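USER: My hope is that you can spare some time for a protein that puzzles me. I am handing you a single protein, as its sequence and its fold in token form. Walk me, if you will, through where the backbone shape changes along the chain. The protein I mean follows directly.
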Amino acid sequence: MGLLRSAARPMTSTQEQTDQRHELEEDLREGFWADPPTLPPRWFYDERGSRLFDRITSLPEYYPTRAEREILQQRSAQILEVTGARSVHELGAGTSAKTRVLLDELTAGGRPATYAPLDISSEVLLETAEQLQSEYPTLAVEPAVADFHHLPPLAGADGERLLLFLGGTIGNFTEDERAGFLRMVRAALAPGDHFLLGADLVKDAARLVAAYDDEVGVTAEFNLNLIDVIDRMTPVTGLRREDFEHEAVWDDEASRIEMRLRAVRDVEADFTGIGRTWQLAKGEHLRTEISRKFDPGELRDELAGHGLQPVAGWTDEAGDFSLTLARVVEHPSVP
């Protein structure tokens, strides 16, 4: 689970709503009639979805946030010392809850610095930016609505930027998507800049499934909210959340969790904006997210191959989660 976001654009406008509808309809065309049907997880994150995800990160079953925070609490000073960063940018920032540990170090002693949270939910983003500006008077907070496919220009001097991609969101990409993302990250940064990547590690399957199917049902509501997002954003009839149930499955061969919406009865929905009818038989599923889990050190070669040379790496005490710090080098070995 993670925060995959929408393309950079002004915070709120009729044009934004129109653009998002067109983007959603394109993703529906590409994914809903595939086998199995899928939809990119960025569509989870309307305002309600973003707040539900924030609740998920506090659930006892959902260990990644606690594990990542533990690493940041222990290593933030070292991260900033190694990087020399004065400009921190965060993809999928959400409420920036974990990042405050790093911001405390960044602004220690009243030093001026910049923090640029990037997220799809303009409401959550603006609210968080206002809170951060109040909490950190010497911090220039520069929020932007952005996704992981079209990064806006990143402010700051060359060699002083630190780009954060936390929460294990790298696991939401397929292998090809991951390669494309790393190429984009390398292109957005200059030699001497740094990239901090959070990744969830392989562990007992029961713990993994529980993290995506909590006892009180917050994750189920988060998943089902996707149906409400689709219904609100594009003209459709016959698509009802009560026709689906949440499901989380561990795929050992692919080393990933799959989040699904399984049809509890036959579904037939007319997408009038697309001009197509979508059918899903009882028992079939819509795949809403993949979440790949990695072996320790598995991503280091991928990073290095894209001009992001690992310089340090850490796990939490339990070995559940990892952070890898990479430095942007002059000549990546993969274009």
Observations:
- Residues 3-11 have pLDDT under 50 and may be disordered.
- The CA atoms of residues 260 and 287 lie 4 Å apart.
